[in-house]
Amino acid sequence: MNESYVQSYDYSGEGVVLFIDKSLDWTSFDVVKKVRALFDVRKVGHAGTLDPQATGLMIVCTGKKTKSIEQFVGLEKEYTGSCEMGVRTPSFDMETAVSELKDSSTVTKQQIEDVAKSFFGKQLQLPPMYSAVKYGGKPLYQYARSGKTVERTEREIDVTKFEILKVHAPYVDFCIVCSKGTYIRSLVDEMGIRLGCGATLTSLRRTRIGEYTVAKAKTIEQLIKWRNTHFKQEQREHEACSIH
Fold first, then answer.
1. 51 part of the active site
2. I want to staple 116 with a disulfide (CB 3.0 to 4.6 A). Which of 18, 162, 212, 235 is the partner?
């Protein structure tokens, strides 16, 4: 891990900025909790939630560097993913069981590409019920899991890229570049509605936040290995200073 991804080693004081490649089934809170324990620091925050079913880049700050979170939150995000045509679920991804099936065999690649282009630009998006957005002090997913739907407020988002990478029916691979607060699951669900057959997100990976790419990020396992190595180095330097 180079200096561009860890600005200092004063975890609790000046703090560090960590670029982490989140693994599948980890919640964003799991990542924050692990960083807190790994660096023995209380003040930890992240610049953008990733669903447990998504992988990819998370920016995590500790100590005083948590004041920098807002500058990362506002940056555009890039995602790659895949969806299944002809399928709908309540959560818009594979977290919940299939609730609707339709024939998608007549949908062409051109139709899919045309619908994808229709999402370009600024628009209003309603946060899905299966999300961490708060209502009455509780995340929406808690209401959704108990079968309740509550009133939500639409938010403005901006989609600057929605490229169809590959169509291997019934699956579609895509790349999306968008503003903060955009729910890719919702875009996929709406795409399925516009195509008349439904669609559900099957995989998602955040590949970029602003200029920062997941290619330079570390998994939690790599971060643990790096941290342990750094601790040993600090210990050797301390022992060397003590001898002199």
1. yes
2. 162
Alpha-carbon distance of 65 to 59, in angstroms, equals 11
pLDDT tens-digit readout, 132-167: 889 999 989 999 999 999 999 999 999 999 999 999
Residue 208, CA distances (Å) to 35, 125, 184 in order: 21, 21, 14
pLDDT band, very low/low/confident/very high, at 4 (cuts 50, 70, 90): very low
Written as six digits, the tokens of 151 are 């009133």
Count: domains in the chain: 2
125 pLDDT higher than 90? yes
More confident site: 4 or 53: 53
Do residues 120 and 160 lie in contact, with contact meaning Cβ atoms separated by under 8 Å? yes
Domain shared by 65 and 94, yes or no: no
In this structure, are 40 and 100 located in the same domain? no
The active-site residue out of 21, 51, 93, 189 is 51
